[in-house]
Structure formats: C-alpha cells, structure tokens
Design goal:
The chain has nine helices and seven strands, in the order H-E-H-H-E-H-H-E-H-H-E-H-E-E-E-H. By secondary structure, the chain is of the alpha/beta class. Strand 4, helix 8 and strand 5 form a beta-alpha-beta unit. The radius of gyration is 21 Å and the shape is globular.
Length: 203
C-alpha cells in the first residue's frame, strides 16, 4: 500500500507528459504546399486574395483542418523550383501543387529541359510520399509526367480565366504579363479545390 502511494504522484506526472507529447500530433493541421512562380506567389494581389490563401479558406469551409503554404516566387522557373524543392516543400507536407513553366518559356528554356525539371520535381516529391497535383498551361500538357509518377494532373492552371493562353480582361491586373487579379484567383481556386480534396484522400 505504501508503495502504491509513492507511485501515484509519478503516475500522474507520466500521464501529463504523455498528454503533452500526443497533443501536438493530434492538433497538427494538414500541410498543403503551393510551389510555383508569380502565379502562385500572387504578384500584385493582397495576401488574403492570393490563391494559396483562398484555397486554405475553401478547404476549411469544407471541413478540412488544412494550412496552405505559399511557396511561390516571382520570376521563378522549373529549374529554380527544383533547386529549392526541399526547403520550399518541407517535411510533413501532405499535398504539393506544382505549377511552373511560364517563365521557362519567357527566358528561353527549352521544352525538353522544362519537362525534365518538372519530371524531377514530381519524382522527388512522390518518393517522399507527398501527393502531387501538377498543373499545365496552354499549349503545354504535362499529363504524361503526372501519370508516370502516380500524380494528379489538374490540366490548365488558367482554365476559366484565359482562352488559348490569353487572360480574359476581367481576370487580369492589366500589367505587362498580365498577372491574375483577385477575381481570377477565385476561379483558379474553384478549379483546383476538387483536385486537392481528391489528393487528401476523399474522392
């Protein structure tokens, strides 16, 4: 009986310590990472209206405890994305949305090199167990790269906001590129959300 009295305080401490250890895992949100160029970074658009932020809102509205990290960099290429992949898509990421290529075309990167970089990005992420959503853009399709690695292909990133690669005025900032405005990103999120839900394991 005396031994039991001595053990009770220690037992309480062990239970408390176990709760502290398990609590972070239980409370951890699902991490989704959007990696890409200015179309992901949200050039010229307020933070809350960039597509990763709006995607997070859309997922939470559907009941998902998700955090969407914006790993877009203005002016980035597929090669740049490949070089920074490990830091841009950290350990613990559940889903990665990959969209590169527009700057490759602008800067004269060959189609073969662009495709090889995208293949490597998807391959490395899949090897880490990350569910990948790969996006294309007019006139390029990367459906074969997605299929090769068991990734999800979301088609044209600009579906609904552009025709044959030319953005509709109501969805554009009207700058030199032009970049998407807040209304354009709303359409992008509407297009991408079902693919993200699918990647999270809910078909």
């Amino acid at each position: 009986m005396d031994r039991l009295r001595l053990l009770i305080p220690h037992f309480g401490f062990l239970v408390f310590a176990l709760v502290l250890l398990l609590a972070p895992a239980a409370m951890a949100s699902t991490l989704v990472v959007a990696i890409g160029d200015s179309n992901t970074a949200g050039f010229g658009v307020p933070a809350a209206q960039k597509y990763p932020s709006r995607l997070q809102q859309a997922l939470r509205a559907r009941g998902y405890d998700a955090v969407v990290k914006n790993s877009g960099i203005n002016g980035d290429t597929s090669g740049g994305g490949l070089r920074r992949l490990n830091s841009a898509v950290p350990k613990g990421t559940k889903v990665a949305i990959v969209f590169f290529g527009r700057n490759d075309v602008r800067f004269g990167v060959s189609k073969a090199r662009m495709r090889a970089n995208l293949d490597a990005i998807v391959s490395k992420l899949r090897a880490r167990g990350v569910a990948v959503i790969l996006c294309g853009f007019y006139p390029f399709s990367f459906a074969d790269i997605a299929a090769k690695h068991g990734a999800i292909y979301a088609g044209d990133f600009f579906a609904g906001v552009a025709v044959n690669g030319k953005k509709k005025p109501q969805y554009s900032l009207g700058d030199f590129v032009p970049h998407l405005n807040a209304a354009g990103y709303a359409v992008v999120v509407s297009h991408l959300t079902p693919y993200v839900v699918r990647a999270l394991g809910h078909r």
